[in-house]
Amino acid sequence: MPKDLNWRKGFFRLWLAASCIWVIFCGIVMVYPSATSYIESLKIVQEMSHYSVPGKESSICTVKEIYEAAGIKVPESVVWPEYYTLTKLKERREHEIFISLGVAFLVPATALLLGMIAMWVFWGFAPKRNQRKEG
């Protein structure tokens, strides 16, 4: 074992390895389920909000256009609870992904900052190497 260890480089490499493992762990545990649920809810919302109306050039239209094409006023009771629920679910998934990414990257950044502060404090107690001997 070498006499003079490079503590700065060693701790940085340890932090880097631990951070990579942490980000991968967070991605598998938190981000992946939220992302897959978000994509599924997004697909369902898009499917529910577009239907075809006969006589319209584009084969995609909104639910409101379907009622108007049939000559029926859109009733207030038809707020499409499923559509509303899925839209809220999509928004919640976006929020979950944002929080998961924050946890995944803020924890290693905080650990790095605390490590840098600890190293600075401990280096304050070390004797200076390049002092001239007087006398």
Please report the total strand number as a whole number.
Answer: 0
H-E order: HHH
Low-confidence stretches: none
Mean pLDDT: 75
Structural class: mainly alpha
Described by the principal axes of the CA atoms, the overall outline is rod-shaped
Using only C-alpha atoms, the radius of gyration works out to 29 Å
* Major sheet size, sense and barrel closure: none
Estimate the strand proportion: under 5%
Annotation field: number of helices: 3
* End-to-end C-alpha gap: 35 Å
The proportion of residues forming helix, as a percent range, comes to 55-70%
Number of domains: 1
Describe this structure in words.
The chain starts with 6 loop residues before the first helix and ends in a 12-residue tail after the last helix. The protein has 3 helices and no strands. The model has no long low-confidence stretch (mean pLDDT 75). 4% of the residues are buried. The protein has one domain (17-122). The protein is an all-alpha fold and 135 residues long.
